[in-house]
Amino acid sequence: MTHREQIRGFLSDKKPLVVGALAENKTLKSPLFECDVLELRLDSIGCGKDVVEFAKNTPAPLLVTARGPAEGGQSDWSAQERADAYRALMPHATLIDIELRDFDSFNDVINQAKNEGVIVVGSFHDFTTTPTLDELTTKFDDRADIHKFALMATTQNHISSHLQIMAAFPDLQLSVMGMGPLGAAARPLMAKAGSLLNYGFLGSTPTAPNQWPASLLRNALAI
Fold this sequence. Notes:
Helix content is 37%, strand content 21%. The protein is of the alpha/beta class.
């Protein structure tokens, strides 16, 4: 069974997975990654020969992300450069993550992914607040296999809203998580409530505010 088939099976069974976000080139040399899916943040580590070689040889299912600066990306790549980065890693990817706002610009990349059996994650990030359910509903796009919402949570009502998103759309594959101290504290709760992709960081560089280390998150979800 390929990684793509395996992860599709887990997602179909609603099994929560821990994604380890890798945003440092030195972490490529780590002998152990305590996560179910390994995210390569190309906007931080690039897509040079060392990254491509790592992607080719690692035994872990890979989520490939070239985040744009509007939603927290760390590079000044143009849309074309980001598209080229996705294509360079596509043969080794199990999933790719593209911001929902950029779906039209990256439609060719999305079509390539679907033709090759790569799972498409459509993501939306809000680093200031949690939008209303009606606002988030407008973000949905049928081209996404999974919708990921990473939202700043500063009140208990925000956490309640995160749970309501998943309850309102039980037939969709969703990954919903909070950022900030309160949002981070609730990440195990979100996984237990049905969030499919649950992110922690590998190495020493978080990729979101107050993000957990992937190994700690994985241990928490095992309880």
